[in-house]
């Protein structure tokens, strides 16, 4: 196998009296989508935030993180983002009072030409709604804006947290199709509860349970094995079409 784009080793996170991650180790392959899965509250978001240096100061974090072969443990977030680690948080984080165009403009980075062609090519709606305030967009449109903002700049890896959460089925399909197009070019670590989306997009899967990695391997193998899937993810057959 080629060198992983992200290499997480023995990551442990304690915060507010709870030991959320207890030695998490896994690698993200440099092509395609790796799905990060697990029951509610197992620490998927915590894993992304720990990699990105976004946990609260009070959190006790140990372990090592490598990005494209270089150690990035405890580097500040802005530096990681400049190195090409793109993050789309679960809450989307768009500025509700600003327009779509203003939200995008704020994401532009000095010294890098913003790639509006890619963003508007994937999400034509963002061009149409350039002057609309982000707070008045639908959930799906806000998600597109959050993803678009990250895609304005060059990325070597995308960390995307539950992009289809709370979206209508038609919009889920739309967002998944756009992410699939992006993943053909940039590798992605994707937290996603919708297993139909995981099945469609992910080549590899990592499952966290009880603070540790309980499965790494082909996403298809995990989703085909109903009993294991049920035990690890707390879902039944009907949930993973
Ligand atoms: N800053 C914090 N302080 C205290 N507890 C926290 C903090 N951040 C997360 N937790 C707790 O850590 C656990 C893991 O949270 P996390 O959001 O990482 O889980 P998750 O797997 O992403 O869950 P979900 O699927 O619900 O989004 C939860 O029990 C959460 O309440």
Automatic annotation (TrEMBL):
Gene Ontology biological process: L-amino acid transport
Full protein name: ABC transporter ATP-binding protein
Keyword ATP-binding attributed: yes
Domain ABC transporter residue range list: 6-235
PANTHER family attached to this UniProt entry: HIGH-AFFINITY BRANCHED-CHAIN AMINO ACID TRANSPORT ATP-BINDING PROTEIN LIVF
Keyword terms of this UniProt record: Amino-acid transport, ATP-binding, Nucleotide-binding, Transport
Entry similarity comment: Belongs to the ABC transporter superfamily.
A Pfam family it matches: ABC_tran
Any one Gene Ontology molecular-function term assigned to this protein's record: branched-chain amino acid transmembrane transporter activity
InterPro entries: AAA+_ATPase, ABC_transporter-like_ATP-bd, ABC_transporter-like_CS, BCAA_Transport_ATP-bd_LivF, P-loop_NTPase
Top-level taxonomy: Bacteria, Bacillati, Actinomycetota, Actinomycetes, Micromonosporales
UniProt xrefs under CDD domains: ABC_TM1139_LivF_branched
Domain of life where this protein originates: Bacteria
């Amino acid at each position: 196998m080629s060198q992983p784009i992200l290499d997480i080793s023995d990551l442990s996170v304690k915060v507010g009296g709870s030991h959320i991650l207890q030695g998490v180790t896994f690698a993200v392959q440099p092509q395609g989508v790796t799905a990060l899965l697990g029951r509610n509250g197992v620490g998927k978001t915590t894993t992304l935030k720990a990699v990105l240096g976004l946990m609260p100061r009070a959190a006790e974090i140990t372990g090592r993180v490598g990005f494209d072969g270089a150690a990035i443990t405890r580097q500040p977030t802005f530096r990681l983002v400049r190195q090409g680690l793109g993050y789309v948080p679960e809450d989307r984080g768009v500025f509700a009072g600003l327009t779509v165009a203003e939200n995008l403009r704020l994401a532009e980075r000095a010294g890098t030409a913003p790639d509006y062609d890619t963003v508007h090519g994937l999400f034509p709606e963002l061009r149409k709604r350039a002057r609309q305030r982000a707070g008045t967009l639908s959930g799906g449109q806000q998600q597109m804006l959050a993803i678009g903002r990250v895609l304005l700049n060059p990325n070597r890896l995308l960390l995307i947290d539950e992009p289809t959460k709370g979206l209508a089925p038609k919009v889920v399909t739309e967002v998944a199709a756009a992410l699939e197009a992006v993943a053909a070019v940039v590798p992605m670590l994707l937290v996603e509860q919708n297993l139909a989306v995981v099945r469609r997009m992910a080549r590899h899967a990592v499952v966290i349970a009880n603070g540790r990695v309980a499965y790494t391997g082909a996403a298809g193998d995990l989703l085909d094995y109903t009993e294991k899937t049920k035990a690890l993810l707390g879902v039944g057959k009907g949930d993973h079409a």
